[in-house]
Write a structure and sequence with these properties.
Layout: E1 5-8, E2 12-18, E3 27-35, E4 48-52, E5 58-64, E6 75-85, E7 94-100, E8 108-110, E9 120-127, E10 135-143, E11 156-161, E12 167-173, E13 186-190
Parallel strand pairs: 1-7
Antiparallel strand pairs: 2-5, 3-4, 3-6, 6-7, 8-9, 9-12, 10-11, 10-13
Length: 191
C-alpha cells in the first residue's frame, strides 16, 4: 500500500510504501500523479519509481512541493501505483498528498493621495500578498478637515480585488468651490 501524506508547502512530502508480506525478490513500483486542487506548479509531477528490496516490507519516496506567497486553502494531488514488477504479483493502490498552506491572510493598506479640489482622487487599496480567492473590502469615507458633501462626495461601498491580484484604485470625487482655504483632508477606511 501507499499511504496518504502531507507537508507544509515548500517541503518534500514523504509517502510510505508497505507490502503486507516480504517477497523473495525485489518489488519495483512506479507512481504517477494527477492534480486534485493542486496544480502542476504546486508540486513535482514527474513519475517516481522505487524498489523495495527482497525480504523487506517497506520503503518510501519524496515529492517536492513549491513554496509561494499566495494565501490559499490546503491543496491536494493524487498518487497511484501504475506499474508493479515482482514477477507474478500485481499491486494497485492510491493515496492523497496534501500541501499545507503557510501564507498569512492578506492585510489591507490604503495609500495617501493629493489632488486639486474638483479632481477625482484615485485612492490605492493594496493587499500585503495575493489570495487564491477574491478579496472583498468595505470602503468608507469620513470627514477630516474636508466636510462632505460640500468638499467631497462620500462613499460607502464594497470593492473586490480579484484572486491573484494585489491592488485596486478607488475613486473619490472632490468638489471644487470658490473659497480661498487651506488644504483639506478626508479619511478613507477599509475593512
Amino acid at each position: 500500500t501507499v499511504d496518504d501524506a502531507s507537508i507544509t508547502e515548500g517541503g518534500q512530502i514523504t509517502f510510505p510504501v508497505t507490502l503486507s508480506n516480504p517477497v523473495a525478490v525485489p518489488t519495483t513500483f512506479t507512481f504517477n500523479f494527477t492534480n486534485g486542487t493542486a496544480g502542476n506548479l504546486d508540486y513535482t509531477t514527474t513519475p517516481v519509481t522505487i524498489t523495495i528490496p527482497a525480504n523487506t516490507t517497506s520503503s518510501s519516496f519524496n515529492v517536492p512541493t513549491t513554496a509561494d506567497t499566495i494565501d490559499e486553502t490546503d491543496e491536494t494531488f493524487n498518487v497511484a501505483i501504475t506499474t508493479t514488477y515482482t514477477g507474478t504479483i500485481n499491486i494497485t493502490d492510491t493515496a492523497i498528498g496534501t500541501i499545507l498552506d503557510n501564507d498569512p491572510a492578506p492585510t489591507i493598506t490604503i495609500g495617501d493621495v493629493t489632488v486639486d479640489e474638483g479632481d477625482v482622487a484615485s485612492v490605492p487599496v493594496t493587499l500585503s500578498n495575493s489570495s487564491s480567492v477574491d478579496t472583498v473590502i468595505t470602503i468608507q469615507t469620513s470627514n477630516g478637515s474636508a466636510i462632505s458633501p460640500n468638499d467631497y462626495t462620500p462613499i460607502s461601498t464594497t470593492i473586490t480585488i480579484p484572486a491573484g491580484q494585489t491592488s485596486i484604485l478607488v475613486p473619490v470625487t472632490t468638489i471644487e468651490d470658490d473659497i480661498d482655504e487651506s488644504n483639506e483632508n478626508l479619511n478613507v477606511e477599509g475593512t
